[in-house]
Amino acid sequence: MKSPPARIAPAAILAAIVIASAVLLLNRLGASDVCSGNEAVEGVFVQEMVERGNLLFPLENGRTPMYKPPLFHWTATALDRVAGIRKVTAANLRLASALYATAGIVLTIAFANSMLGADGAILAGLALAASYQYISQGRFGRVDMTLTFFETLAMFAFVWWIPPQASDAARTAAGGPARRGMLYLLAVALGLAVLAKGPVGAILPGAAIVVFMAIERRFSQLVAMLEPGPLIAGAAIASSWYLACYLGGRFAFLHRQLGSENLGRFFGALGTMTPWYYAKPILLNSAPLSLLVPIAAATALWPRGNRDDDAVATDSSALRARAAVRLFAIFWIITVIFFSVAAYKRRAYLVPLWPASAVMLAWWIGGFARLRLGNAMKWSFAAICCGLIVFNLIYIPRQEIRQCADSTYRPGAEEIRRVVGPAEPLYTYGFDEELAPLLFYLDRDAPAIGGKLGDAPPGYVIVPARVWRAHQAEALDLEPVLTTDRGGRPLVLLRRGKALAAGDAAAISIDP
Fold it and tell me: What is the pLDDT of residue 405?
């Protein structure tokens, strides 16, 4: 008689998911250039920290203060210091995001395992690795994945802290050191979320927690959360950089971060967009999974029927799982509403929803276990996720390279650096777009000058080729020493006065 086939251990499957996720996030991480203004801005600030030691108050182009708190940049700098790296590249700029994203998958798997068991952990891990938005943003050198990790950690710590039922007053924060530790973890995570992107890092998970506690009538536990120790720890972390700005007289940093980047979004200072802007990203950012998330959220919030009550009345793990997904559904709704009201919107603002959404999807799919086709649904969901993981592995790096192939400043900047010495003045003129992608590859300041091109100071001036054609007649004292359209970014390098560096005095023409 044949023995039944051996079942693969859940731990082996979970380890395989983590390894596959790391491959997804690290594979060809630096193959594409830094050509997005959003990513390049962060890259310029990381350069200031890594290469020039400006850890607290870095400036873009010598003038513009950073507009996000520095946790992402500090993480990137710490990784470079540990690895002995002194030069910022596309790969090590993005490494911090990739590691935060990988850690987020590990954290989500661990949380789902504690709430839903091994099968739920496998489904949640697969769902998160299959999310196009989560993986693509995990390969992007921005603050969003840092924020995602710490918002997720805060909510998971909160669920690990609360008792399964509102009436279980004996298991509040005073129940023991382990539970008090979860309260400290919650406070620290919220503080670090603020250092990742600003007050929104604590506002969104905090609002979801308060609304959840009110709906569940957990008022005594809400009061128990106000323990002085965790509150002081979280507030100290959250306010640390802001206090440094204030005490150091760096009010421009405070104005830009708190005024423009936060209040400005809700009063139109950064422009306006339609309130329904997120309709498409919500449904299609990681289709077909993103189409299922609103259904799972609605199911989590739907009043429980008698059968459901009977099934979980004595099952503390089921009660805790139900409370967790209700919290995550509230967080999902609050986040969507919050950013729909904001004047300036980015699709990446939805990334922090994905770890919680992965747990909701795993819980929702697992809820069909009692049905005759329940196992078939779980296997089908897992198969879809595996297909999406393979798609992400192949498509995302290629798409990144295609997007930058014809819009990168790297080749032109490299040619300019060969001509202009590091001690020579370098300026820019006539650019109507974010300068950070050019500055990142120049790896130096190039202040923008206004007025007439002909009034440019002595030194070198970089102008777009179209601007030079339009203003050539008024700048007869400026000599073109380099023209290049490599990377799809036509540039002209002009010089006024005598060159100080060992460059060619004759005009140089670089063909693509």
Answer: 87
Q: Give the whole-angstrom CA distance, residue 354 versus residue 343.
A: 23
DSSP tag of 486: G
Indicate yes or no: pTM above 0.85: yes
The angle that helices 144-161 and 90-130 make with each other, rounded to 10 degrees, is 40
Share above pLDDT 70 across residues of the chain, in percent, rounded to a whole number: 88
Over the stretch 50-91, which tens digit does the pLDDT of each residue have?
Answer: 999 999 999 999 999 998 999 999 999 999 999 999 999 999
Alpha helices in 1-70 (DSSP H): 10-26, 37-52
Are residues 40 and 437 in contact, defined by beta-carbon separation less than 8 angstroms? yes
Distance of CA 444 to the CA centre of its chain: 25
Question: How far apart are alpha carbons 286 and 307 in whole angstroms?
Answer: 33
Say what the pLDDT of residue 176 is. 67
Partners of 491 in the β-ladder: 464, 484
List the structure tokens of 363: 């819980």
**What is the chain's Cα-based Rg?**
26
Q: What is the mean pLDDT of residues 454-466?
A: 94
Question: Which H or E run includes 437?
Answer: helix 436-442
Q: Are strands 459-464 and 426-428 parallel, antiparallel or unpaired?
A: parallel
3-state helix, strand, coil in the chain (%, to 5): 65, 5, 30
* DSSP code string of 194-246: HHHHSTHHHHHHHHHHHHHHHHTT-HHHHHHT--HHHHHHHHHHHHHHHHHHH
Tokens of 281: 């990203």
Long-range contact pairs involving 497-505 (C-beta distance under 8 Å, separation at least 24): 497/458, 497/459, 499/424, 500/421, 500/423, 500/424, 501/419, 501/420, 501/421, 501/423, 501/424, 502/421, 503/418, 503/419, 503/420, 503/421, 504/419, 505/481
Q: What is the mean pLDDT of residues 169-184?
A: 70
Torsion of CA 256, 261, 264, 269, to 10 degrees: 80
Which of 292, 423, 231, 267 is closest to 343 using CA atoms?
267
492 bridge partner residues = 463, 483
What residues form DSSP beta bridges with 65?
59
d(CA 141, CA 166): 41
Residue closest to 99 by CA, chosen among 66, 141, 131: 141
Give the Cα separation of 357 and 379 in Å (integer): 19
Q: Which amino acid is at 413?
A: A
Q: Which residue has the tokens 């091994």?
A: 118
Pull the structure tokens for residue 148.
């995602």
Query: What are φ and ψ of residue 508, in 5° steps?
Result: -120, 135
Better-predicted residue by pLDDT, 271 or 178: 178
- Name the residue with tokens 């995001």: 97
Q: How many CA atoms lie within 13 A of 347 on its CB side?
A: 13
Structure confidence by residue, pLDDT tens digits, 206-232: 999 999 999 999 988 888 888 999 999
Q: Which two tokens stand for residue 335?
A: 């986040």
